Amino acid sequence: MMHESAKIPTRRAYSDRMAERGESDPDFAVFESDIGYSTYSYLFGDRFPERYFNFGIAELSTMAAAAGMASTGRRVIVSGYGVFLTMRALEVVRSFICYPKLNVKLLSSHGGLTAAIDGVTHQATEDIAFMTTLPNMKVLCPADPVAARAACDLALDTPGPVFTRLMRDPLFELYGTEEEFHIGGSKTLRQGGDVAILSYGDLVFKALLAADRLAALGIEARVLDLYSVKPWDREAVFAAAGECGAILVVENHQRRNGLGYEIATTLLKAGSCLPFDNLGLDDTFAESGNYHEMLDEYGLGPASITAAAERLVAAKKGRA
Amino acid sequence: MKLEERARELEAKARELRFHIVDMVHAAQSGHCGGSLSAADIVTALYFEFLNIDPANPDKGDRDRFVLSKGHACPVQYAALALRGFFPVAELRSLRAMHSRLQGHPVQGKLPGIEVTTGSLGVGICEAVGLALEARLRKASWRVWAVLGDGELGEGAVWEAAQAATKFGLDNLIAVVDNNGLQNDGYCRDILPLRSIPDKFRAFGWAVLEMDGHDMEDILRTFGKALLITGSPVCVVAKTVKGKGVSFMEDKRDWHGKAPNAEQYAQAVAEIKGGPA
User: Fold this and answer.
1) Is some CB atom of chain B closer than 8 A to the CB atom of A29?
2) CATH number of the domain that A239 lies in?
3) Cβ-defined contact of B107 to A99 (cutoff 8 Å)
4) Could you tell me if A213 and A152 lie in one domain?
5) Interchain CB contact of A57 with B (< 8 Å)
6) Cβ–Cβ below 8 Å for A29 and B137
7) Of A130, A115, A131, A181, nearest in space to A152 by CA
8) 8 Å CB contact of B160 and A55
């Protein structure tokens, strides 16, 4: 496992792979709504102009036209910002893509608070709730450039709609190029038996930083990268619950209706009643500001994760 | 065959469509008569004269694509598909029932001949743009015909699609506006005034034709002209009457989404079968 600073953000990595793959895979098209130089979808458009369609600032019709093209079976990647893809075009995604199970793949940039500096209108902090709630939709959230390239391949190789949440800012490199990913999979990045920290996307790194702090306090935290948000890796999560006895889900998203809610419900239904917490935006909007400072401010930085994990470990001991 | 003779045949076919529209909505005690009846002549002409389709091979690759953007009028499409042989006519009475393939609004994959899922207004014309682009990608010669309501033109997405169709030069796309002048809550001119539909589409770069949407000869001539236009998408504005063919439904807001009772059904059927064309 590497821990180097990444040179490119996951949005760029996905688009890089999309443009590369265009050479060997002549059958998919890419739809854009005038933010191609931000999502990097232009990299595909420069190489394959005949199957790159820029609809201008018109996200709803872009998505619906993608549905029309995909109704013939063709795979279409729709590129955009999370707030527009998952809210302005939500009804189209639901009724005209997920319902008929079309091969539309969403390249969704600026997930969570990575658009921190742009302010709330550009921060997709409810996207996971919307997308995971839709029948037939699969949801990926890669944590690093290697995982983002893999997500592009998984999306194109998996029948039906696939949403991939990508980040604006370059973060860290976690995975070697030989790493393999699959729908429903996860990665255990750090072993530990005192508490399990489950996360996806950019906050995986914050979880790893928190695990270092916890180790200094004598607490061994297991850290899972749930890059496949829907479906998620039940086997790994149940193993973590059984072996660690405490679960902390950390999401760059509203706490409400995020993956934490889903995991908590599933554990409860399975009869597992253990110390549990989930970190995320606590029924609030954020604001403009520096990305990392914003995460700290809203309780998603290493200090908050460390404190929450400590509380869970204490609760576990209180029960023993 | 002369155009006039063909028009008489299609008028008879349109009566059959109208009968089944009223019949299935009566059976379901739910559905949209008014907008189905206003589009009946347009849809008859398309399914029985213009569309390159094959009921024995509904998925054949080079078929024309029909998109009912005003999806609530699906009884007219279901009737056309059944009469054209895509599925048994007897199945029409299962409209909107549990486990029926005839969903409340058209659903791709449920029923042979339904190309895309529609029902939310403004979306079908966007899907039609995607289908027309697909034809270009495949270098295929098929056309996309979309039927829109006039109330539907209030949706911003229609105008997004209209701009995209012009940008991409989609001369394989023909949009027919069923201009019956009524929408759910009243006359379009009162709910959201449209001003000139032809002028609007012209301003968006489309070629525009106008016709009487209940004059079969005019429909045949106009659609024939539409097929000859190259270089831009084509909009055919069809002047129609909501509820056309059933006197007490004609131009009545109340018949947008209402089912006839037994007495009304009997009168409607008598008018459709016996009345003037």
Assistant:
1) yes
2) 3.40.50.920
3) yes
4) no
5) no
6) yes
7) A181
8) yes
Contact A301, A271 (CB under 8 A): no
ipTM: 0.94
> Closest by alpha carbon to A96, among B130, B183, B87?
B130
Q: Do A53 and B168 touch (CB under 8 A)?
A: yes
The DSSP code sequence of A301-319 is: SHHHHHHHHHHHHHHHHHH
- Is residue B133 within 8 angstroms of chain A, CB to CB? yes
Is B117 close to A58, i.e. CB distance below 8 A?
A: no
Query: Which domain, by its residues, includes A298?
Result: 187-319
Which residue in B116, B137, B167 is closest to A67 by CB distance? Answer: B116
CATH top class, domain B3-274: alpha beta
Tokens encoding A17: 């792979």
- Mean pLDDT over B195-219 rounds to 98
pLDDT in the model for residue B277 = 44
Verify whether the Cβ–Cβ distance A68 to B161 is below 8 Å: no
- B163 touching A, CB under 8 A? yes
Cβ–Cβ under 8 Å, residues B49 and B79: no
Q: In terms of domains, do A212 and A252 share one?
A: yes
In this complex, is the C-beta atom of B107 within 8 Å of any C-beta atom belonging to chain A? yes
Please give the average pLDDT of every successive group of 10 residues along chain A, which has 320 residues: 77 98 98 97 98 98 98 98 98 98 98 91 97 98 98 98 96 94 98 98 97 98 98 98 98 98 97 96 95 95 98 91
Supply B135's token pair.
């034809």
pLDDT in tens, B114-170: 999 999 999 999 999 999 999 999 999 999 999 999 999 999 999 999 999 999 999
Give the separation between CA A54 and CA B159, rounded to whole angstroms.
16
Question: Half-sphere exposure (CA, 13 Å, Cβ side) for A75?
Answer: 21
Which residue does chain B place closest to A54, by CA atoms?
B164
